[in-house]
Amino acid sequence: MKFKMKKIMSKKLLNWIIPVAGIILTTVILFLDDFEKDSKALTYLVVINFITIAATFLSTKKKRTVCWLSIVIAVIAVHIFLLFNATGWNTASMEGNSYLIPFLKDATDFLYGLLFFSAFLFLIPLSIYGIFIFGLIVLFCENFTSYKNNDNKQD
Question: Which sign, positive or negative, has the C-alpha torsion 28, 103, 109, 140?
């Protein structure tokens, strides 16, 4: 019984580590970069992802499978929207010619740059970004949803 309790507690603790580490890393990048273009873009992406995941989570009525499916679809849709925000993105200047929503210019350029660099670095930057998003999804869907599970029963 104690082993099961420790296993459940360590799993819940692990669900908090990745998002908190990502937020701490984002904060460190902000202070090191003096809030320049790249750090603003990273902040925009973190805030956009967090708002998307939180809003989708609130609309899923706290069902675990619906939560996972709807949040993944919402996050993918938001990133596709960001990629469609720019027209004529140039790899030399790392900027687009025009934007549908100028406020999201930095986030769009950062996302395109992330995809561009990931193509040459064996998808490592994109994987790190994906792990952070996965951590946010786990934070909401695993810790705050209710589902029937026999692991919580006491023997």
Answer: positive
Tokens describing residue 50: 């967090």
DSSP E strands in 3-139: the ranges are: 86-87, 98-99
The number of CA neighbours under 13 Å toward the Cβ of 43 is 14
Q: Which of 149, 133, 128 is nearest to 11 (CA)?
A: 149
Q: How many CB atoms lie within 10 A of CB 95?
A: 18
How far is residue 86's CA from residue 122's CA, in Å, rounded to a whole number? 25
> Does the global pTM surpass 0.85?
no
Q: Are 29 and 44 in contact (CB under 8 A)?
A: no
Query: What type of residue is 109?
Result: D
Bridge partners of 99, per DSSP, are 86
5-62: per-residue pLDDT in tens? 555 556 666 667 767 777 777 677 667 766 677 778 888 888 888 888 888 888 876 6
Q: Are 82 and 107 in contact (CB under 8 A)?
A: yes
φ and ψ of 140, to 5 deg: -80, -50
Length of the chain measured in residues: 155
State how far the Cα of 37 lies from the Cα of 39, in Å rounded to an integer: 6
d(CA 141, CA 87): 35
